[in-house]
Amino acid sequence: MAARQQNRSSQGRRRASHSMESVLTEAVALLDEAGAPALTFRALAQRLGGGVASIYWYVANKDELLDLATDHVIGSILSDVEALPGGDDPVDDLRAIAVTLFDAIVARPWLGAYFMRNTNAQSNSLRLYEHLGAQTLRLDLTARQRFHAVSAIIGVVVGSAVDLGQEPPQEVLDGHLGRDEFLGRAAQAWRELDPADFPFVHGIVDEFDGHDDADQFRSALDLTLAGLRLQAGT
Amino acid sequence: MAARQQNRSSQGRRRASHSMESVLTEAVALLDEAGAPALTFRALAQRLGGGVASIYWYVANKDELLDLATDHVIGSILSDVEALPGGDDPVDDLRAIAVTLFDAIVARPWLGAYFMRNTNAQSNSLRLYEHLGAQTLRLDLTARQRFHAVSAIIGVVVGSAVDLGQEPPQEVLDGHLGRDEFLGRAAQAWRELDPADFPFVHGIVDEFDGHDDADQFRSALDLTLAGLRLQAGT
DNA sequence: ACCTGAACACCGTTCAAGT
DNA sequence: ACCTGAACACCGTTCAAGT
Q1: What is the CATH number of domain A86-232?
Q2: How confident is the model at residue A177, as a pLDDT?
Q3: A165-223 pLDDT, tens per residue?
Q4: Cβ within 8 Å, pair B148-A220
């Protein structure tokens, strides 16, 4: 079937041969499988079937590796965003894009920490930024308002994402405790606080218990978009 | 003046003696002086004048150290928040609290990554949460709306904070480049993009160049609060 | 041009032992 | 009850050398 790989000499496996593409694909695979702590140069080298030092031919350091891995997956998020239908209401289109970003981060919680962190090294991020911003060009806003509006929307996404990206406590990872049990346990602690000292916490503990992160995100996004709509006079 | 310290024997310095308080104070000092990477058990032990292992008497692991250090500084932020005058408009009071939080994070950029991350281990965080929430009790909202409103506001703070907490690139740290030069350099790269492909980016590049993070935060916060005001019918 | 092995300096964490 | 020294297993990064 496949031709004999050039990097196998007659003596057996000798020299590995990588490529930027394979380095990033395997880096993302590690991140997806076990989160940010799983991405080490040694683990990555092992997956690539080579030595640690060869990775440094492709990236200058770990920060750059993370930036490029992030931009790599943002490439596919960008495709999703570009596939969005787009309607006649720019604010609704902004919402649809933001929800797409949020969903992508839910699927890859490690993304939360690196998303939109460095638009220089991340060229797909810049395109995504442009895509969001393009919707604001359809609204009656000043340049400064547009700049701030897009920053605010990204802020809502990142703010929610950071919450999601939090490594769950050890009990949850070990599978001894599901997310619901974990929330329930925290909720129980809240219920035991003095209601006179914590009236708000008592009032919302039932909402907190078993809450959906997506709901929370949607509400935060809707508040920002409502404010934006008001500002644009739409 | 001060009595001879018990941990000095006649042979000279022998056994160090710590306390939770001194551990956290020195941990915060390290974080303040050089950011999150500076807080290592070895550096902390050196400042405390003892061995690394003794720190484990006070905290179970580094995560707990970070949680407690964060809660420690949130204690003083809480004092600032409680010292706020408080007016007749709950939304304005929410804004004042949020701005206080933002200012605290500007002063301690490392906080951004840990702020409000674990209200279990962080008892001062919970009090701060209650303080924000208490303002929403003065608004005509459902429990769910209150819960989401406070989450949204914290999201705006954290979203902006994450941006601030980013370690500046090496050139800025080295002092070869100021923040303005750094922004200007990025802005210049944006100006060189094809305007047909990046109309939005071109439209806001002058806003981006030399922008103030506080302005950006204030705008994001105001959008959220405007949305909240609308929701509460105030 | 691209890959390797071995080293370096540094982490968090543990543990048997001291006081 | 609290502290210590030394070890362990792991990091990112470098470099002289190979192909």
Answers
A1: 1.10.357.10
A2: 72
A3: 676 666 666 667 777 888 888 899 999 999 999 999 999 999 999 899 999 999 999 99
A4: yes
Indicate the residue of B136, B201, B206 with minimum beta-carbon distance to A129: B201
Asked if B227's CB is within 8 angstroms of A203's CB, the reply is no
Q: Is the pLDDT of residue A107 over 80?
A: yes
Does residue A36 lie within 7 Å of nucleic acid chain D, judged by its CB?
no
Contacts of A120 (CB under 8 A, 6+ apart): B186, B189
Assign B16 to helix, strand or coil. coil
Contact residues for A80 (Cβ-Cβ < 8 A; gap 6+): A100, A104
Burial track B148-162 (b if 16+ CB lie within 10 A, e otherwise) = bbbbbbbbbbbbbbb
Q: Is the CB atom of residue A43 positioned under 7 angstroms from any atom of strand D? A: yes
Q: Which nucleotide is nearest to A9 (CA to C1')?
A: D19
pLDDT digits (tens, 9 = 90+) for B68-83: 999 999 999 999 999 9
Helices B199-208 and A143-165: angle between axes, nearest 10 degrees: 90
Q: Which residue of A has its CA nearest to B167?
A: A117
**Chain A interface test: which of B157, B160, B224, B231 (most A C-beta within 10 Å):** B224
* pTM across the whole model: 0.91
Separation between Cα atoms, residue A142 and residue B204, nearest integer Å: 9
> Amino acid letter at A144?
R
Q: Which residues in chain A have Cβ-Cβ distances shorter than 8 Å to B163?
A: 155, 158
pLDDT digits 0-9 by tens, B165-176:
676 666 666 667
Structural tokens at position B88? 């007749």
A51 CB-to-strand C distance under 7 Å: yes
More confident residue, A121 or A99: A99
DSSP per position, B77-123: HHHHHHTS---S-HHHHHHHHHHHHHHHHHH-GGGGGTTTS-TTT-H
Neighboring chain A residues of B204 at a CB cutoff of 8 Å: 133, 143-144, 146-147, 150
The yes-or-no verdict on residue A84 having pLDDT over 60 is yes
